[in-house]
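Operator note (shift B, R.M.): manual run for ATP synthase epsilon chain requested after the automated queue skipped it. Running by hand, logging everything below so the morning shift can see what happened. Input copied straight from the record, untouched. If output looks odd, do not overwrite the archive copy; leave it for review.
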Amino acid sequence: MAELTAQLVSVDRMLWSGQASIVTAQTIEGEIGVLPGHEPFLGQLKENGVVTIRPTSGDRIVAAVQGGFLSVQGDKVTILADFAKLADEVDTTEAESGLHADDSLVKARSEAELAAVRRNSSR
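Run finished. Output pasted below as returned.
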């Protein structure tokens, strides 16, 4: 079975390195899947994108990425992310509370804008 050498690196750390059968990533041009023998390629990773690596042994690796690049040279794939976090590192409680905080902020902003419109229209 043909293999790829894959690396997933963020600015502050190496997240994963090893042999893989396929790597998929969301780029600004769309999703790309890289198999052994892929043509050389350089792509820009999508903000709020996902990278998936299927190791030749072990469980699938899934990471959320914020920008960066994907490079394919021969049978080597390098993902250089501005920021990346492995799926198993995500604290779902923290992420959900962040979503609720964002909802509250949007609601407060909408109410403030509506109050400003009412003030201006009553003049």
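Quick read of the result: The chain has a mean pLDDT of 87. The chain has one domain: 1-122.
Leaving this for review. - R.M.
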